[in-house]
Amino acid sequence: MGTLEAILLTIATASTPLLIAAIGELVVERSGVLNLGVEGMMLMGAVTGFGVALTTGSPWLGVIAAIIVGALFSLLFGFLTLTLVTNQVATGLALTLLGMGFSGMLGVGFVGLPGMRLGNLSIPILSDLPVIGKFIFGEDPLFYISILLTAGVAWFLFRTRAGLTLRSIGDNHSSAHALGIDVIGIRYLAVMFGGACAGLAGAHLSLVYTPQWVENMTAGRGWIALALVVFSSWRPWRVLAGAYLFGAITIAQLHIQATNLADLAFLPGPLYWLASVIKSVPAQFLSSLPYLATILVLVLISRNRRLTMMNTPASLGRAFVPDR
Amino acid sequence: MRVELIKRPQRSALFSVLSPFIALGLTLVAGAVMFSLLGKNPIEALYYYFVAPLSGLWNPDDFWQLHELAIKAAPLILIAVGLSICYLSNNWNIGAEGQFIVGGIVGSILPVVFPTFESWIVLPLMLLMGIVGGAAYAAIPAFLKTRFNTNEILTSLMLVYVAQLLLDWIVRGPWRDPKGFNFPQTVQFNDSAVLPEIFPASGRANWGFVFALVAALVMWFLVSKTLKGFEVKVLGQSPRAGRFAGFSSSRMVFFGFLVSGGLAGLAGISEVSGAIGQLQPTISPGYGFTAIIVAFLGRLNPLGIVAAGLVLGLSYLGGEAAQVSIGLSDKAVRAFQGMLLFFVLACDTLILYRIRLVRTSPAKALEPAHGNA
Amino acid sequence: MGAANGSEAANLLEVVGLTKIFGTLTACDHINLTIGRGEIHALLGENGAGKSTLVKMLFGSLEPNEGEIRWKGEPVRIASPGAARKLGIGMVFQHFSLFEALTAAENIALSLDHKTPIGTIAAKAQALSYGYGLPLDPNSLVGDLSVGERQRIEIIRCLLQVPELIILDEPTSVLTPQEADKLFETLERLRSEGKSILYISHRLEEVKRMCDRATVLRHGKVVGHCDPRKETAASLARMMVGNEVLQVVRPPVEESAPHPALLEIRGLDRKPATPFSIPLKNINLEVKAGEVVGIAGVAGNGQGELFEAVSGEVRQQDGGSIRIRGRDAGHLAISGRRLLGAAFVPEERLGHGAAPRMTLSENLLLSRHKTDRKAFLGAAGFVHSGAIAAAAQRIIKAMDVRKSAPDPEAAALSGGNLQKFIIGRELDRRPSVMVVNQPTWGVDAGAAARIRQALIELARSGSAVLVISQDLDELFEISDAIAVMHNGTLSRPLPIAQATFEKIGLLMGGAEPGHVEHDVKEVA
Questions:
Q1: How many Å lie between the alpha carbon of A172 and the closest alpha carbon of chain B?
Q2: Over 60: is that where the pLDDT of B370 sits?
């Protein structure tokens, strides 16, 4: 396997959890609900996926359990914000803190244990094609699910009546209510879909990306997923682009950290010099690149106020109490 | 069964006071359930969590424990008081953890870079630099929000990770104690750079706790008695009415972030100089995040926050006590704190709404209207 | 063609003893009402009389506490708007229930329950819209459309469901007189096809002109049924209000006194701030001491943007574009303009003119912390709550604000009482320039008359008063001159003696000012 092949493969692996979590949150936000608890839901998914896979011996059961737990966990948020009309920002934060706490507690016994990995696809001939073979036909199963999920959500939002209904709630919940649309019921479903996706994304981390359990192993990916939704202007295919951009940055900085300068001696002078400059940057700065990139991306996408206002679902984060 | 909310004509004064207590009660019940599920005796666990650390109240031999409580509560109160200003004005600074760290780093410049400089002025300068450091770090999301319309929740949080990595680099790299056997830590601060204890005779509590009380009093006065406090509340509740009043929401973004960042920075340097005495890769057990819970449990009222800070400080101590005595994982503390915030938010609904349970039978919708109840 | 169904009950809809209670308020109290086939039935009543509540129960968005609805003689329970549509009841909302970020066709699709393929809706809607003379581009974003066009979408959306009863809630309040005439033609045509219409309005002239029968509501109760064509506007108004409506008196402007221009707007331009806002183009206007100038216009033609620019909520680059009492004020923020003697009352009461969850005293401080700094604030911005509470009580007394607690939250007041407080808050300062946007929108007749009289009196005492309003009756009642806003431009003001509904209406519809004056000359 060539270096390029390996890099492409790892980029996809690093991007997939971001993509899955962000696609779920996109649906939630399209319905007008801002759930800042993605990080917490991902952690719950990660610890559940790891634990169930370990105890049953089946990574797939772990994946399914993570999806269910993610959805159930998001129901807590749904009940507070939709039924009790609490502040969505504060409640989302609470969900993240709760997820960090619960996952840490549930995972005490898992720390340091070797985990199970969901195997990569292997199709004879196709998977062995040069360069793109592994990238397209030799990924882990969740990679394919993430692509299907993106396509499915894009189709659902813009090609179906149910998707139109969901978007209408996000645009103006009072009008939707006046038309007889069950605003709260649909938002519950959207929130649970977001929770299920976050759970799945968490399972990807603990069953594919790094098959082990480490406390707070999401390391801010839930928040980056939230930023990706803003970056995408609430459009599914742009989420995919954003997720791969971040995956690429993550992998690039990891490769820079791992590469030995001595191995690059073959490079021509200027390039070698550049590499040595980059290598002299402390590892911590390289590790902070994904976070700094998130800020940069948010700045670039938000600076056009008019455009941002156009794209943001108009009732995002606003409380809704139906009169009855 | 359906939950229905009925808006109260006026916010309920009764539930404004009662809701944090209801939330605490519910958290204790839920905590007891959680401990039983973990196979521990819930009564015993709750005892170690919330009673044992307070034994200094009746047993003079344990009086030092109350000092420990003050040490834990001080940073929580300092940070939460600042956050309350931010949240009241509807600015969501959730990066206090990062501002705490940067305050600790900037405040440590003097004792780490000039370890031989000993003078009475060192400590005041350190505290000031800590405040400036925290405020400057908080100014970044404020600037990005006002200038580029960037979501401050995400930027302030991203900067937490950056601050943690910065601290990690600084104690392993440039500021590592050359005589420290390669441990990732700075030199021990000299005596003039250490925040003194208030009553050294009875325990370790340092002046950080006094700072916290003073900050709470000042902020309480500001919020409830002055035009600035009015401005904070108006802009937080209805920004358009605030603009109509002639208040600037951009300036309020900076005000909120600078105040909360400065107080988080003060908490950071107080913790480093008072409780730790040097910089290490980790200087906070998540104070910046727990303070969010403190702010809400205190109902964003600075005086309420003092009480809430003591409760959450207690949970940290209780977590340690329970780990030692009945082998309960210290991770349970975070779960406990998370539940508390959930219940606090849920109970706050009672202030604006009456809650009614309505029995619904789906079949009824199809019946004709005769005998409509 | 009215389908004659002899076997069915004569009445399409019957309402018996319908009651709705919100907390302590009985919004609808044992309402009885019948609507026949092919009838235009008016529902009359003041703001807060219970019209909207009744209609929401008929359309299934509210659940009645008591009473019965009979559809074609059969008792029915209308559990949701979907159920109402299935029965054959359609509704055109006053505050449109449209989605700005969606296209016209998508908006229409949302209210069609049956499995119409989404692709075919656009074509259907277009065909129907041209059939009824209500042209419509199904692919345009609703956010980009004018108020009149939006109403067309609402009507088309309603008609596509082939309803037998159409409920229209204050449909002409957002239209020019000419657009309203077109709407009446459409309604006549629907009546001739045998459809019934429940027509809600407080405009008595159009009710007299169009409706076959009328039901009048007051304080949630039916106070009478009548044939509006046999009543006078005054007798209908009496039924609605319960007693004689206070007549607003407009004394002539004193000719002898000097009338300096206190508010001047010169060549004001403004770029749109949000995706759906209107740019202002070269606006010029003068308001002199002693006079009330009205600005008419259909909603969404730049009135809100003009208010923001004049009040200083949004500042201008050019200081001379707004002058208050002879001083350049364009570069000043709202507080600076207040210090020059100006006062402002925005359109939205809750959330703009007042903070909903703050008390009346706190809301007093909202607009007067700069102008009354000495009286209300101490050193370091310490708030003298005693002085503020006393001033608030003074305003409450002067404007007869009715409330349930000594110092209630703004949200706890009725619309009319809160508006009286907000206007009183500014009048209490005796401002020399007063700018009011929609002074009596959603306010009951008694409060409205009081507010209008107060504005006239303020002007006659030597202040300049600028009133932006969609209510032409109101503007004709209080203004000394009326200018018209259309698509971000402002016409020259017409002295009230020369202004007619027709002329103003043409300008509101976008006719060139020259044309209007030309037409008038021909007529004269």
A1: 19
A2: no
